[in-house]
Amino acid sequence: MSCGAEALAQTTAGNATDSVNHPAANKYQPAKAAKPAARSKALRTRQSAPVTAGDADGGSEAIVVTGTREIGKKARDAIAPLDIISHKQIAATGQGTLRDALALLLPSLTTPTAGFDAGAMTDTISLRGLNPNETLVLVDGKRRHNTANIYSNPGPQQGSTASDIDMIPMSAIDHVEVLRDGASAQYGSDAVAGVVNIILKKQARGFHAQNITGITSEGDGFQQGVYLDGGASLGSRGFVHVSGDFVHQDHTYRSAADNRTGTYQNNILSQPEQTRESVAVNAGYDLTDNIQLYALGTYAHRHAESYQNYRLASSLNAYPGYQAIYPWGYSPVETLNENDFELKAGVKGDFRGWHWDVSSVYGRDYDDIGLINSVNLSINKATGRTPTSFDVQGFNNQQWTNDFDFSRKFEFSGWPHSVNFAGGASYRYEGYSVGTGSPDSLYGNGSDALAGTNPGNAGNYSRDVAAGYLDISTYLAKGLQLDLAGRYEHYTDVGNTQNGKVSLRYDITRRIALRGTISNGFHAPTLAQKYYSALNISPTAARGLIGAGSPGALANGSSGLKPERSTNAEGGFIVEPIRNLHVTTDIYQINMRDRIMPGGNISGATAIKAMQLNGFALPSDISTWNQSAITANWFGNVASTRTQGLDITVTYLTKLGAFGRIDWDAAINLNRTRLSHQATNPLTGAPLLNAASIAYLTTAYPRSKIIFGGNWTHAKWIIGLHEIRWGQTTNQLTYYAPGPYQFSTTHFLEYQNKPKWTTNLDVSYRITPRWTATIGGNNIFSAYPTRVPDGNRYLGAPQYYMSTSQLGINGGYYYFRVNYDL
């Protein structure tokens, strides 16, 4: 395993390229004398095996397609910070999902410590301490559709409906290119923090199988993953590559004792159980020597379950039907049945020096959210019926993207350097639907823990997005590269936007280079942020998230959402002071205006009235609850922030002669976000954010993340050892213990999740040329987050704080992996 930093990637990614879907850089270009059959064979096999770090130039000659519109751009010449993670690095982590693997490889990438409710069952990523919505996910250079499952609970990920990268089979991935740079001018909305471009395998031969079995240091959380892929030729002019994953993980249980009972029955602090099956079919075919047809289909199904807070047996004293079913109380379980698919088809080619690409991509994610092991006391009281399972919510997100891209290099008299000209246009349809809950989930006060969505909060919503872009790149002088990009987009719901980007790189010598970028960007509010609403009910508390344009929100000062806007500046240098030592350093600043998060927190009678205006059914005795424990809010443009940071990557190769070699790597990300402006409620003049919400924006992501170590390779052995230091996060905790500040929304306890060190170790042995076995562990000494003070744990159980993005709650993870290559 390694940190996956830019320099290391240049020594591991080999000559892998996006040979299907990048509009210009990936067009297959054979030798002029090649015969058609030879052309197609090269098309199918052009992704060579990863080049080892010992090849001084091979890795740095890797062709990249992210962040550039030029053909054949090499990793060593990248004008912006770019990490390349090979499939071998991903597999070496022993993780069963791409999200968790990338978190162990990239310091600038973080994932949630844990999650609540349905949000815990969608896998999202964040770059540079910004919301997952600010990171754009591409597959083979084409925009990937987003999940329909919004993360609605308070925390730094709140409001995110980013692409769930784990719905793409991990077995289908050749490598991942991560652009750590604002790229809205190049790719459009969502690319404020950067771009993750997942490049799929396109080999026309071979078969690969992988099995990963793992368990946590506590003996729970069993994981089993099976990953298969293989390729075949389509005659002499094409290929098809088929991949499939089966992944299952069990619950983990990390709750402390419930302070109501002193027992460990409350499993609220746990990893969800989930089973996921996914498949991908990727194909390409040369229609002529200059025109290629390509297609991709992915499908994934996931079933997941997430615990809710334990309900006491005494809560059923007046309901004998349910008391007979749950004599010892019950823990509602939220379920997710998800179906996700994407279909892509396109044709590209060359015509008189012009490289062109026409494509259409349709993706859809459908989420059916239910409850099991729950109750509806109103039904029992009125009819005597005792249903225990409910369909509570349904969400559908669809996206249809159509692109036309072109590029060509020009030579002008009087200008000594070629000029690469690229441009294109796109049309995108986005649709979002919210379905009602079943009658049983809506009756009376609704299903316990999560009431069904009522008809007043359901609906179908859509918008159209049209865009055009231009990109020009050239050399201004020897060693001085310039790239200019501009983009115009029109959204039918939020209007127009214009974005630009200027990048420079100056190679002072063969071993020293400087680079810098200035750009502006935007992120349009998602349809889910505009229209989603839900009511979560705990044993003694209720929290409503209401639509920004709903009657309850408008009555309390909400206004329509507008896009977030950013200004990005970045600068750095690349040095190779001695052979085999590669160092990159980049500093960055991201100013974001009109950031979207829930704001305008209201509580007590005001919150009750707002939720009733939106048609929510509330518990009949809610007026007797602690009124501070009843809250509501809505998404708004709440604040402006400034994020500043530093990325450093270092790789070095030590040759040990007869004793093999060691590939050393180190990488660090330092990141800080500060609040520069806070919006106020137009009706009351009160700030839209409280201290807890400000902390989600500014200090819930690690101040630093460091990864360093090495891989020793000798004969049939590979041993990898890496350390990860997770920096401090700071949050403001609610008081739950009886006292003057119980459930207060204005007084909080500052909680510091202290820095943590984890050690990752893996040992691989090549049994035969085709079989390899690995035993390893991540966080082998079982470090855990800092414990939360007793008085700040709701019901006592959540001993670790989940609404942050630092070290996970599971402790150590140990695995056994077997690989077969044909």
Automatic annotation (TrEMBL):
Residues 1-33, 39-58 are annotated as: Disordered. CDD domains: ligand_gated_channel. The keyword GTP-binding does not apply. Residues 9-20 have a biased composition (Polar residues). InterPro entries: Beta-barrel_TonB, Beta-barrel_TonB_sf, Plug_dom, Plug_dom_sf, TonB-dep_rcpt-like. Its main location: membrane. Keywords: Cell outer membrane, Membrane, Receptor, TonB box, Transmembrane, Transmembrane beta strand, Transport. It is a multi-pass membrane protein. This is TonB-dependent receptor. It comes from Asaia spathodeae. The lineage of its organism: Bacteria, Pseudomonadati, Pseudomonadota, Alphaproteobacteria, Acetobacterales.
